[in-house]
Amino acid sequence: MCHVIVTCRSMLWTLLSIVVAFTELIAFMSADWLIGKAKPLSSEDMDNRTRGSQEPYHPTLGIYGRCTRISHMQLSRRDTLCGPYAENFNEIASGFWQATAIFLALGIMILCTMAFVSVFTMCVQSIMKKSIFNVCGLLQGIAGLFLILGLILYPAGWGCQKAISYCGPYASAYKLGDCSLGWAFYTAIGGTILTFICAVFSAQAEIATSSDKVQEEIEEGKNLICLL
Question: What's the family (predicted)?
């Protein structure tokens, strides 16, 4: 018989698992990993703007995508054009970034799977006599290791020609040159830290769902058990 067990700690772990997965996925898909050096406005831009709005813009570069701004001669505004610069995996600018993409993708796949599984832990608490919380926590820890490897390898690709075109000639491995780090890189780091917190917290979720109070509720014949 299926017992639906909901506790404060198990729900927090489930929510955190979902948040972590989406955080890493959004960071991976973003083009705001590097903020390039300022680009001067074209003569058309100078003609279409007031002096106060004639500021240089900063293009951004991601692992496989980029954002640039294009001007419309008949419109007094600039549009940001974002999209992948690489049509396939082999066109990613650096071998280090290809490795980063692989490790991040593996980590995100595991996290998304665990986020999906975590929803069903309310009904299923064990698989083959193994705690599903402990199994998920272990896999989340492995995903965190993949994410760390990807983030370590990413700065090694700053010396590729694509990064140099954005960051200037002084850009090289682990040296930003004229670029700065964008929000996506920091988000990926934050998500990685939360991944390990989530992995550790899975043990608390397991303890909460197997506590004496839960067992007493089961013995009383209750199928829906909610404990704070």
Answer: Belongs to the LHFP family.
pTM for the structure as a whole: 0.84
Rounded CA-CA distance 12/27 in Å is: 22
Q: Torsions phi, psi of 6, nearest 5?
A: -125, 120
Q: What is the pLDDT of residue 73?
A: 41
What are the tokens at 22? 């989406």
pLDDT-based confidence at 132, cuts 50/70/90?
confident
Give strand pairing partners of 130.
Answer: 127
Contacts 24+ apart (CB under 8 A), 85-92: 85/162, 92/63, 92/64
Classified as helix, coil or strand, 224 is strand
Question: What distance in Å separates the CA atoms of residue 121 and residue 137, rounded to the nearest whole number?
Answer: 12
Mean pLDDT, to the nearest integer, of 49-68? Answer: 73
> What is the model's pLDDT at position 77?
42
DSSP strands (E only) in the chain: 4-7, 34-35, 60-61, 65-71, 78-84, 126-127, 130-131, 180-181, 224-227
Looking at residue 124, its amino acid is V
CATH topology for the 8-33+90-220 domain: Butyryl-CoA Dehydrogenase, subunit A; domain 3 (1.20.140)
7: helix, coil or strand? strand
**Among 212, 204, 100, residue whose Cα is nearest residue 156:** 100
